[in-house]
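Researcher: Here's my situation. A collaborator sent me these components and asked whether they could plausibly form a single complex. I don't have experimental data yet, so a predicted model of the whole assembly would be a useful starting point for our discussion.
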Amino acid sequence: MILVTGGAGFIGANFILDWLASSDEPVVNLDKLTYAGNLENLARLQNDPRHVFAQGDICDRALVDSLLATHQPRAIVHFAAESHVDRSIHCPGEFIRTNVEGTFTLLEAARAHWSALPADARTAFRFHHVSTDEVYGSLTPTAAPFDEAHLYAPNSPYSASKAASDHLARAWFHTYGLPVTTSNCSNNYGPFHFPEKLIPLIILNALAGKPLPIYGDGLQVRDWLYVGDHCAAIRRILTAGLPGETYNVGGWNEMTNLDIVGKVCALLDAARPRADGLSYSAQITHVTDRPGHDRRYAIDARKIERELGWRPAETFESGIAKTVRWYLEHAEWVKHVQSGAYRDWVSRQYGGRGEQTTRKEH
Ligand code: NAD
Ligand code: TYD
């Protein structure tokens, strides 16, 4: 069994779905169900005993201890975080609590659990910490992409809190020998992406006839990776990654925000043309830039390719086409997220029913 934190969020849910599609090893999913956590993402596992859901906070040491004692996972995959840069600018406190204190709590609980294991289980145990390329800060247009030795220079409260958590994970390996691996990944996109992030926001605003907000000049560059490729990279690291190592994960897909929005609009123009025959790109509206907006992120993903044989399977063209199709085909999911009805899913799903096949604890 493995313990996943944040498994009701965008990447965590994709990870659990992909994991159980390719393995029968059960997953305990510890998630607080913040605004970003949505159990509807895991609706496909409704009758699946291999998924055990525990609603709770990673800062709750007693809860984490009890999950570790009960389920004896051989690995922890730590996704849970506050993850939206814009929210971190308005409300940084929650980012420090979850991303820094939460990671500290998990590392301490993992250390206590791991220390008491028999020797072979101690050697096999893994704590995988999921992080971001944003910890490295912003690149100039001609600078080489971030490799694993790049200086940490986080610029937003989000990236600073993630950088702090990376340092804790590193220290728990160096000081205590806890078998920690870390991945720093570029921007993900794909199914179940919460529509406050660029790509789903653009798809849904376009279809709703709303403005497509571009911060500043829209020439900021991100390196986009299809979420399924990120999940495959994490599975590979769990299998073959070395304790104490960090792996940068990226899609080799550097694009400006305007390019991204243009491609999304072109796909929607073909799939769901506007009634007036104009392109959805007519809805593009430049708005005030994000404070401290990083200009460019780019990942050098050669280490994980060389050492673990991982490369992204999707091109940006194939991944974005799948993603746009997914949003067009999942109008109910979108409606529930936009109306907030997804938050009632837990009571609709579990209320008044006994033991669940997707079991819920706490
Ligand atoms: P998300 O915001 O969609 O999901 C986060 C999940 O964590 C939610 O289900 C939420 O309920 C849960 N959570 C938040 N606080 C919690 C707490 N205190 N205790 C328990 N659960 C809590 O985020 P995401 O986009 O899926 O990102 C997952 C991880 O991947 C994060 O660590 C993020 O930093 C990292 N990452 C994300 C991207 C990206 O493009 N989205 C890229 C690189 C790395
Ligand atoms: P986002 O999806 O928030 O991810 P991150 O900030 O972690 O990279 O934003 C991706 C890029 O898109 C980023 O440069 C900010 C920009 N952006 C807009 O231009 N308009 C928007 O409405 C949003 C949400 C983001």
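Model: Some features of this prediction you could bring to your collaborator: Residues 352-359 have pLDDT under 50 and may be disordered. The longest helix spans residues 92-115.
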